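The data are set out underneath:

___
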Amino acid sequence: MAMIRSIEIQIGQMAKQIAQTTKGLGDKFLANTITNPKEHCNNVVTEKEKKNEKEGERDKKEREKKRSKEKKIKEKMKIRREVLLKNIYHILMLLQKKKKEKKKFFC
């Protein structure tokens, strides 16, 4: 910001010098620079922008809630899957055991 300000000052000084040297040429180059009394500009926010910001915040909160729900659902599904796999494994082990017992019985 300071760099831009110094460039603006230098350009203003050069414009004044050119204006002074060209006075006798009929003032074809007018370089009457006016210094800005304010160093900064204030941002103006309209009601529409405020409304859009509020809607954006509301949408963000809704997305976060949705992600949270999805995460909980995925966790529940993972737990159910693990329980199901354990049950399947247990059933397979029981079937193998029964198979071995049948072989022993018929042999």
